[in-house]
Amino acid sequence: MDLGLREKTVLITGASQGIGRETALLLAAEGCNLVLVSRDAARLEDLAGTIRTHHGVSVNFMAADLSSDADLQRVGSSVGDLDVLVNNAGAIPPGTLQQIDDRQWREAWDLKVFGYINLTRSLYSNLKERQGVIVNIIGAGGEVFRPDYIAGATGNAALMAFTRALGKSAVADNMRVVGINPGPVSTSRNETMLRATAKAEFGDEDRWAELNSALPYGRSATPEEIASAVAFLASPRSGYTNGTILTIDGGPGA
Length: 254
Prior knowledge:
Elements: E1 9-13, H1 18-29, E2 33-38, H2 41-55, E3 59-63, H3 69-78, E4 84-87, H4 102-111, H5 113-129, E5 133-137, H6 141-144, H7 150-170, E6 176-182, H8 188-202, H9 208-213, H10 223-234, E7 245-248
Parallel strand pairs: 1-2, 1-4, 2-3, 4-5, 5-6, 6-7
Helix pairs in contact: 1-2, 1-10, 3-5, 4-5
């Protein structure tokens, strides 16, 4: 299926690994020109080289910490024409209310919650010029409300509200705003979280694989599966989808 994304310019945050990296590779295969952002310059350079070699599209990258106002402004001011923004940077640590102190909570939200909001604000006019699309990769923790992931559950729920509220106003600008709530995904971060859960439940973090095998279909999602959803939702094939948040967690009871 031709998604109609060829020659579109896409900015992806958190692009150096996991979902962001696979999204970059998939969109490059669809013919998109890319702007890649993360804090890891070396990984970005390696990814950009791989994409140029195999797909022949334009790739620019910027090492930036999107929890920093200065870095965020630098990214926002350096981007020209833009068709799609994929907000993906950020990881909120697991823990209960007493385990996540004020510093951890604020640092995590500065990158993920306020990073999404502030970068969207900075780039909105660019996107409006081309009737663009914003894809927020959020997290199913915003639907489940686990007390041992309280900072993430609260932050993700806030980004879900942000996505739906902005989607309502985006219609007037012929834009779309959508979100994806992945459940567990096969990344190093997911293993870290499963290890923390295994330690809390079994007293042994090495039993994390048992938790993974207990998921629907006996596994976590792959980053490629999430990237495929990003590509479809960002494309004209999904042109009537707005203010929607797609949950990808293996199904009911996951």
